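Let us work through a complete example step by step.
Step 1: write down the sequence.
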Amino acid sequence: MKLQKILTKALLLLIGPSVFLLTLVAVFYLFFPHNPALDRTFKYDKKYAFISQYPFVMPYFLMYPTEYDSKKEYPLVFALHGGFGKNYGAYQLALLDRRQTYHTFVLIPYGPPMSLWANPETAQVPFYRSHILDGAMKILKDQLETLPIDKNRVYVTGSSNGGRGTFGALKKYPDIFAAGVAVNSDWAPYEYQYFKGKPLWIFFGERDHIFSANRNHKFMRNIGEDGITKYTEYPGVGHKAWKYAYTDDKMWDWLFEQTLSH
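Step 2: predict the structure and record it as tokens.
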């Protein structure tokens, strides 16, 4: 009996801080998600959507095109953030000169802490790191139904965790995305067949310590010279290829030229 009381108290002491920490994380996730635009002059609109996956509510940010006209159709970029909610591609698209050049919607779903957008089928993932791409896709599909979006020009991009999500989105939803840009990331080379014939540009740092340049090299060898899949590797660069990829106007020009009917 005494042992039972001791174990009960120990369990309560253990659960108490855990519940508090989880509650704190949930509050920050729901009410203080990282805004991709640091300058208040081009702040994204923050919204919420109900999804069928934990935590059942997902914040997201949406930017409308400049000179928006509801009678016209516009492309949309589905921008997936990396670790800690950073979204470098969405930030670059919010700069005034790019907004005036590309006139696009930008949609940024915001995943809960420790979650992953996607991974190859055989990847070993801890139980607490759930895949949440499907929940984010529900938000995208809702926007496709309600906003004047050119459904032949829907794109996906992301860095690191968001890069993995880019691969995952192109693999699982090939009929939605016209093209993708994956940065600071890799995918299983043996799954190359899912991406063959789909416009995809991979940007990677030679010295990236989180993902593998060798896996990207094998992936590209398996794809072959199809003229559609592109690969850029920056010598001497670590896990910061986003600094170069997302500031390259040639990449953005290429992306917005792609269509589902390419």
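Step 3: interpret the result. Helices lie at 2-31, 88-93, 96-102, 133-146, 161-172, 213-223, 242-245, 249-257.
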